[in-house]
Amino acid sequence: MPRPRSLAALAAALILAGGCYHPTQIPAGAAAAAALSPHTSADTALLRRDIAYLASDRLEGRLTGTPGNDSAAAYIARRYTTLHLAALRAADDTTCIPVGELQRTLEAHTGSHVTLTAKQTFGCSSPYLEPFVATAVAAAHAGLRDSLPTQNVVALLRGTDPKLRDEYVVIGAHFDHLGRSAFGALDPDAGNAIRHGADDNASGTAAVMELARLFSRHPTRRSIIFANFSGEELGLLGSQHFVEHPPVPLDRIVAMLNFDMVGRLRNDKLLVYGVSSATELRAIVDSANVAPRLAITALGDGFGPSDQSSFYAAGIPVLHFFTDIHEDYHRATDVAQKINAAGEARVVDFAERIARAIADRPGRLTFVRAPRPHSMAANGPGGNVYFGSVPDMGAADVVGVRLAGVTPGSPADKAGVRKGDIIVEFGGTPVKDLYQYTDALHAHKPGDVVTVVVERAGQRITLSATLGKRGD
Q1: Among residues 306, 302, 311, 309, which one has the least CA distance to residue 323?
Q2: How far apart are CA 288 and CA 267, in angstroms?
Q3: Which of the residues 72, 228, 309, 370 has the least number of beta carbons within 10 Å of its own beta carbon?
């Protein structure tokens, strides 16, 4: 999402003023390895424990700009401290912004009263916190503040090769979710219930922390940056901030691996987006899929509604790991008890082999640029329009949009749309893929009556739906 230049400048100024610590040093050799867990593959129990905490009632869904989001950031930072990772901060970055000064700055910028907690001093509690102000116009329309102090969490594992250690692989995931807000929720009838976000994206956050543990035992030739982003649910704001204010030169980043919803592995099925963003990636992904093999659906698209898009738009090869959509997505029912921790451990081990191959190979990946697709964000006249379909994100072999489910009681459900239907036309507009479907949906507004053509068991069926308003 584009942000005003003045606020981008404000965020940059805040970051330049933040930070109480200097970069730490990494213990060398066997001494560092001996202090770490003896596990040589992903630790299922640790993944389960991390997700349970991040998705607990205590953190209230980790909405950007809330104490729960701050607590999640502090939890991640503590993990990086125990792993003795380095912090990416400038050597002369020695000042903190007190809460009172931060409040006055934000009030002067926004022209309205801002209430902050004592926790919201920028850059004082950990060297790994990279503060910024998340700004989203859509959030303001939903009743949230449009300027939300928050932070990414960023740590560095220095590479072992003197010639390659100044090149970097970024391993990232967002840790924010919806909190108690109905903004973006698909269960508006749940009111202010906690949307726990166990799969979205406590699972991805846990995967990044576990990969940090694995790589800290056996570092790679290139350096690895572990990046946990806030503000993703408001429009990829944390990853956009990282790219706009990179801690290392962007041209030194050779690849970015993103984890968003990797906690619900079913039938061994894993989606990997971005294999066409570099000429070598498809072969690397294939060779990493060793026994017991995963059922990989490899998709070329480097764009998509998650944080890898920010990096791909900046000319960096990307991969995005995803165990597919499910009916608990953006609902209060996305809870830790439904996570398949053993399945996530398999995803982590698979991704570790891929990341290691990229970080250790002698040459860089060959970036392949694709045109940016139509935006899948709700930017059109129907930005708050609601239908209630759940797309099957892995259905790359169909023309149209196959549905993995339909929300009970939604306009789609009332119209007679069913799980397994393939939407091929919406409101008179042909639908060939998810981008066209999203554009067709957002061309309408709540209350519009539209025809929906679906393919079901080889037959075309025309249905009529009255579109709803998201949040009602």
Answers
A1: 306
A2: 19
A3: 370
Q: What is the 3-state secondary structure (H, E, C) of the chain?
A: CCCCHHHHHHHHHHHHHCCCCCCCCCCCHHHHHHCCCCCCCCCHHHHHHHHHHHCCHHHCCCECCCHHHHHHHHHHHHHHHHCCCECCCCCCCCCCECHHHHHHHHHHHHCCCCCCCCCCCECCCCCCEEEEEEECHHHHHCCCCCEEEEEEEEEEECCCCCCCCCCEEEEEEECCECECCCCCCCCHHHCCCCECCHHHHHHHHHHHHHHHHHHHHCCCCCEEEEEEECCHHHCCHHHHHHHHCCCCCHHHEEEEEEECCCCCCECCEEEEECCCCECCHHHHHHHHCCCCCCEEEEECCCCCCCCHHHHHCCCCCEEEEECCCCCCCCCCCCCHHHCCHHHHHHHHHHHHHHHHHHHHCCCCCCECCCCCCCCCCCCCCCCCEECCEEECCCCCCCCCEEEEEECCCCHHHHHCCCCCCEEEEECCEECCCHHHHHHHHHCCCCCCEEEEEEEECCEEEEEEEECEECCC
In whole angstroms, what is the distance from residue 427 CA to residue 441 CA? 8
User: Mind listing the pLDDT tens digit for each residue in 75-123?
Assistant: 999 999 999 999 985 333 443 455 555 556 556 655 666 665 544 444 4
> How do residues 120-152 score in pLDDT, each as one tens digit?
444 456 789 999 988 876 566 556 676 889 999
The token pair at 358 is 């990229």
Peptide bond into 152 cis (omega under 30): no
Interatomic CA distance for residues 158 and 225, integer angstroms: 9
Domains detected in the chain: 26-90+138-143+151-360 (3.40.630.10), 385-469 (2.30.42.10)
219 and 146 in contact (C-beta within 8 Å)?
A: no
Dist. CA 282–CA 75, nearest whole Å:
34
**Tokens 């890898």, residue?**
308
According to the 3-state scheme, what is the secondary structure of 122-161? ECCCCCCEEEEEEECHHHHHCCCCCEEEEEEEEEEECCCC
Q: Are 330 and 176 in contact (CB under 8 A)?
A: no
Please write the tens of the pLDDT for every residue from 17-62: 333 322 233 333 333 333 333 447 999 999 999 999 999 999 999 9
Amino acid at 151: Q
